[in-house]
Design goal:
The protein is mostly helical and about 280 residues long. It is about 75% helix and about 0% strand. The protein has one domain.
């Protein structure tokens, strides 16, 4: 794809530049992954916030669906009003994902066929022509685990894949642990997809160059910390909003009592004294 080529060439140049600092090929991939995740952090932030808000909104959405199950038009109206009130955009978790896709595909191509996108004059280009010079924990990151026939030699590759699956499960659990079981068919389907995706990543990692698997693992670990931070910030913001709303209600009640005048307030005080007696 023509749109991918410029991204792939830029990523290939950056990877070779990082390698020139004397780090190994594997560490270069780790650093590259972190840099890319930092660059796309604003998009990931929007995506994670939108996903969490949609998940937090599920109980209220279920209540509206149950209340207006016989009036679809009214239900859609109430759902739209709720989204507007809470600042929720149903497409908020999809748009950032679509924007990131060219970068992901470009990175995929670079790590799958590095010699096509790394500058020929770079030291990394020469190193990759000799796989033994770029081993990472005794792994050749240019080949998949499935290409190795000896099971003892496959061991570090298998550990790497298991780490990818484990971190993907942790990452998925971060946003779904508070949901519990749902009776909604659509929600159950989404939860099932969330459980299957880590296994799917493990499956494809078996057949992909191990450099990509290092990228998956690094990205998962980065996003675990990132999501923990975002969720914490969202919870703090929610608690702050709740406190502010509580203070506002108290102030409104005080204003109402003051507006009612001294006679009403005096009668209320007398009623309170009688109750005490």
């Amino acid at each position: 794809m023509a749109i991918i080529e410029p991204f792939a060439e830029a990523i290939g140049f950056l990877l070779s530049y990082i390698y020139d600092f004397g780090v190994s090929y594997g560490i270069s991939i780790v650093v590259l992954t972190i840099i890319i995740n930092i660059i796309i952090f604003p998009l990931t932030l929007r995506q994670t916030k939108s996903t969490k808000r949609m998940q937090d909104a599920q109980p209220e959405l279920k209540r509206l669906q149950k209340q207006y199950k016989d009036d679809k038009e009214e239900m859609n109206k109430k759902v739209a009003e709720y989204y507007k009130e809470k600042g929720i955009n149903p497409l908020g978790c999809i748009v950032p994902l679509l924007v990131q896709m060219p970068v992901w595909f470009a990175l995929f191509r670079v790590l799958r066929e590095p010699l096509l996108f790394i500058p020929k004059e770079a030291s990394l280009y020469s190193a990759l022509e000799d796989p033994l010079s770029v081993l990472y924990f005794n792994m050749d990151l240019q080949i998949p685990a499935s290409a190795i026939s000896n099971w003892m030699e496959r061991f570090p590759y298998i550990i790497l894949i298991l780490l990818v699956v484990g971190t993907a499960l942790i990452q998925q659990n971060q946003l779904t642990k508070k949901q519990g079981k749902s009776n909604n068919a659509q929600q159950q389907q989404m939860q099932m997809i969330g459980k299957v995706m880590p296994i799917f990543f493990g499956f494809i990692s078996w057949t992909l160059p191990s450099g990509l698997v290092v990228y998956f693992l690094t990205g998962n670990i980065f996003r675990i910390g990132q999501q923990a931070l975002i969720v914490k910030l969202e919870e703090n913001q929610s608690d702050k909003s709740s406190k502010e709303n509580g203070k506002k209600k108290e102030k409104d009640l005080e204003n109402e009592e003051n507006n009612e005048g001294p006679i009403v307030n005096d009668s209320r005080k007398k009623r309170k004294k009688r109750r005490r007696k």
